[in-house]
Automatic annotation (TrEMBL):
Residues 22-207 form the CYTH domain. Gene3D superfamilies: Hypothetical Protein Pfu-838710-001. It comes from Novipirellula galeiformis. SMART domains: CYTH. Pfam families: CYTH. This is CYTH domain protein. The keyword Zinc does not apply. CDD domains: CYTH-like_AC_IV-like. Keywords: Coiled coil. Residues 170-197 form a coiled coil.
Amino acid sequence: MRDPQRDPNYLLVPLPRSQVIMFEVEQKYPIDNAGAIEAKLIEAGFRATGTETHRDTYYNHPCRDFAQSKEALRVRRINGTPRITYKGSKLPGTIKARRELEWELGPGDASGENTEELLRHLGFRRVAEVGKTRNVFQASGDVASNDLTVFSVVIDEVDEVGRFAEIECIAEKEADIELAREKIEALADQLGLHQTESRSYLTMLLEIRTAAQRSNAARDSAGQ
């Protein structure tokens, strides 16, 4: 029997029959001028598909630290509609790639509260909530490869963190990961995106909050 404490790729949730394990391949870039990037995307053959509001609540495993294993478990609400996502440990390579499981929780749990209550009863600890506004751009058929299920770019305005562009491919097979990485690098060059950010939004948010707490504590100590 596989030990969830020792095996970082142990699945935390049962896999529905309709759910396929995909490989998420993505790279994010800090940006200043979102409008310029969006104009380049349209010129490159992408189309704007809408604006989303995300509220992502992250949980940590009761028996191992996801910050160390580089996994993630979250309940994401997109415009209020909840879904649960598990991301496995990062695979080797300069551009982040890892297995991903995700599905919507409705209609049986239309608010996501039942799932979060279950996680709490199982010992999962709430870490933080990350909020953002996301503008989504989808590749046209001429831009996307048949080997990649999704090829998209998003412009994120992340609460307390900043503004980023993220290029993402979803590969159905592990053999397609290198193709996805090549397409991400090529598009980043085309968009003039060269400074990368490897940290997750959750990690950046926690680091910012920790630094603020230390600064406030130092200021309070100096005032005594």
